[in-house]
Design a protein that fits this description.
mainly alpha; 2 helices; 61% helix
């Protein structure tokens, strides 16, 4: 998967994990690894 595709799917994956009760610190770590910033809406559910 190239970087552009990761950028499309990572927010969806992170949102799903957050809804399943995964801890905010792990979600923040994953978002950092995948290069997704909080301004994509992720911060609203972490």
């Amino acid at each position: 998967m190239d970087g552009g595709m990761i950028g499309q799917f990572a927010p969806v994956i992170l949102q799903y994990l957050g809804q399943q009760g995964v801890g905010g610190s792990l979600l923040q770590s994953l978002s950092g690894i995948w290069g997704i910033s909080a301004d994509t809406g992720i911060g609203s559910w972490i």
